[in-house]
Design a protein that fits this description.
- The chain is of the alpha/beta class.
- Strands 1, 2, 3, 4, 5, 6, 17 and 18 form an eight-stranded mixed beta sheet that branches.
- Helix 7 packs across helix 8 and helix 15 runs parallel beside helix 17 (522-534).
- The termini are far apart.
- The mean pLDDT is 96.
- The structure holds flavin-adenine dinucleotide.
- The site of flavin-adenine dinucleotide has 36 residues, from helix 2, helix 3 and helix 15.
Length: 865
Amino acid sequence: MSAAMESARSASAGPELDVVVVGAGFAGLYMLHRLRGLGFSAKVIESADDVGGTWYWNRYPGARCDIESIDYSYSFDPELQREWQWSERYATQPEILRYLGHVADKHDLRRDIRFSTRVEAARWDDDASLWRIRTSRGDEIRARFYVMATGCLSLPKTPDVPGYGRFAGESYYTGRWPHQGVDFSGKRVAVIGTGSSAVQSIPIIARQAAELTVFQRTPNFSRPAFNGPVTDAKKAAFDTDPAAYRAAARLSGAGVPLEPGLVRAFQVSEAERLAKYEEAYASGELLAFGAAFADILSNPEANATVCDFLRGKIRSIVRDPETAEALSPKDHFYGTKRPCIDTSYFETFNLPHVRLVDLRKDPIASITEQGIDTATRSFAFDVIVFATGFDAMTGAIVSVDIAGRNGLALADKWADGPKTYLGLTTTGFPNFFAITGPGSPSVLSNMAVSIEQHVEWVGRCLADMREQRLDVIEPTPTAETAWVQHVNDGAEISLFPRANSWYMGANVPGKPRVFLPYIGGVDRYRKTCDEVIRRDYLGFAFDGPAGARCNDGVVCRLQPDVAMLLDALAELGVPPMESLSVEDARRFVIASAALRPPGPEVGEIVDGELPGAAGGLAYRLYRPASPGPHGIVAYFHGGGWVVGSADSDDPLCRDLCVRSGAIVVSVDYRHAPEARFPAAVDDGFAAVRWIAANAAMLGGVPGKLAVCGWSAGANVAAVVCQLARDAGGPAIAGQVLLTPATDCDFTRASYAENGDGYVLTTALVRWFRDHYADPADRRNPKASPLRAHSLAGLPPALIVTCEFDPLRDEGAAYAAALAAAGVDARHLPCRGQIHTSIPMVDVILSGAPARQEMAAALRRFLAAP
Ligand SMILES: Cc1cc2nc3c(=O)[nH]c(=O)nc-3n(C[C@H](O)[C@H](O)[C@H](O)COP(=O)(O)OP(=O)(O)OC[C@H]3O[C@@H](n4cnc5c(N)ncnc54)[C@H](O)[C@@H]3O)c2cc1C
């Protein structure tokens, strides 16, 4: 057949295979096995000449896993679990490679793997609905589906060192180590880099080399792995019930059955904290510090206590104080760069023939033929070892020339950072899957668990498509945009984006600075992927003989920490408040207040009493630490006019005080049902008049008074503004209303959309309103300020509403009505938040920007002339 005929035949032909999988590491091997089991035809293409992936390439001395091998292994084959015994807690590279080879043999995988073949390019053929995959052998394979199992850490980064390539001696790369090994005996050796591979190899190279010089740009947190035989406790935990053990790993945050820290670092004494850190240190487990307290990876002060502790350990090991100092990380929070565990890493720097060059002080000027010149010195070497890391997570994917619909290049689509749906798929690239792709937990987890979950999801998806006679799948732009947003939302509430790490792409010059993995945890992530399937592949469009269909939508709409809070509440089985008696509801609010983080320190807190409309009212004054006098904010707590107190809103008041620099006076008001409408607003107005009249005595600036409130308290604040306007005073500089109750109309869309499941339910709003006001009174503007005859002349306002709140639309309506009446009113809608989340200081970190905006508005109102 002529070449032209061959090409025409191939152009019109259908797929030769159901699936092409690229990569024969942990992921590719299991993908192949799974696809075979489901009856799909599949081939794996692998550039190496054998299986193993990471464990094929990384043969440097000391290479081993740092998640315990019992955990870092497949769970899909119970027989394999029984027959394979790991010789150490953290197995060496040769042992892991043997394991993967054994898996390949046991399941006869090699016959469907084409080794020593690189996938160079892949093009989506829209007419034939298949991928055309071109390999380094010059051939093309046509497959319906294309799965990249190319690994997150498989493309070594080209060292960005001046003079790279000039060295005339031996050069080695940890990620591409020669199979025959390297003999360092009697040699002068340089190691460039101090990441995981360097930390593992340096102690072993030092044993052989005549001289070892380590060039360090960024010191890393490392600590002893205490490697040895698998502990009896671990073995027993696994052997007793392997299935339960694996289930616990799948339902954990990082894919290892480890109890997560629920307590915050500063909820315990310093002595208890240090004891916990000693325990984490002694455990030798990579994830132990991250799990020590709930806020290690989100609270800078909590994280700093870990950093101090670990720096102390480094100083206690490294004898030379200057070297110890240089080896102590100071430019990133613990865990925000991948931490290491080691065997005698820091001890190695006590050896007389080992030295450290701190490149921050003495940068590399150039690699030379003989060695390395720094700004101040010249070094001669026989060997240079480059431990310079990987183009992580996206590198191996975009290094293949992948073109989707209309020739769109994946590298172009991801030029500003990867965009995926679930880290598995990407729009414009039908029938394309990435195992542990960017936007999935991947490198933040035990990868064995994450790989199995992805492989099983893809397998299930392909089987469902076959059953439903569909042959093209692609995520929708809506789903993808929302997922990217969700991934970013998660990163934003953590400390991760603050580090120049490979998680952020910061190690590769020119790579966009985007947080690449998904921080929500493998448990939550798995639930999300399962939910997508359960909701009929939400966010995916399909096509095929059965026709086209699309179930567009967004799977994670809540902020990640809000979703976690709701899950935790669901697990606790807290009864709905409206099912309680008023007394029990009040007791419940008091009990939950006692469990929260306290909020920030303020300068002073004073409790007092002021005259209300019908007797004394308790108030609590929060004074900033700065010298006064200050503007004053009269604050009204939430609680549906029925429950709540200064205590219940204490953290929010502290936060507002610190952020706004104003005195916050949190005023109690009489509660329903004992004192029904209009007791609360009459008390509120009386309190504001008293505060205005007594501003100087309170330490405030007379005339500088704003009001603020949350929920029913925001209703009180809004009504007080109207009463003050109508009474000709006192002057109120501004109003900040957080999720205010402004009306009595339950027909608004936000009640239908959010009336169930987000703590404040429609039933609870009714319960509150029934306790507060008679039906005849509810339309009174003193109960429903939106119904005032005029809103003109009211103080400037910031109205904050939350997306998943029944009160959302009445808050938005109030903001719009104020603006229509000529009031300087700003509406701040908070995406992914619920009615109760913004006041949860130090719990809902994603609420901090809204709290900051509220404080900024107060500051602005009080600064106005
Ligand atoms: C030194 C080191 C230690 C690690 N330790 C741990 C640990 O303790 N715990 C943990 O969870 N994770 C660890 N990791 C992460 C590790 O990469 C994963 O756990 C896991 O091995 C990844 O498996 P994979 O199959 O997804 O990718 P890989 O193992 O990276 O395999 C990908 C394969 O794809 C091939 N490939 C890539 N592109 C192409 C192409 N275009 N054409 C053909 N073939 C291609 C590569 O040659 C490679 O063999 C470690 C990584 C390194 C580098």
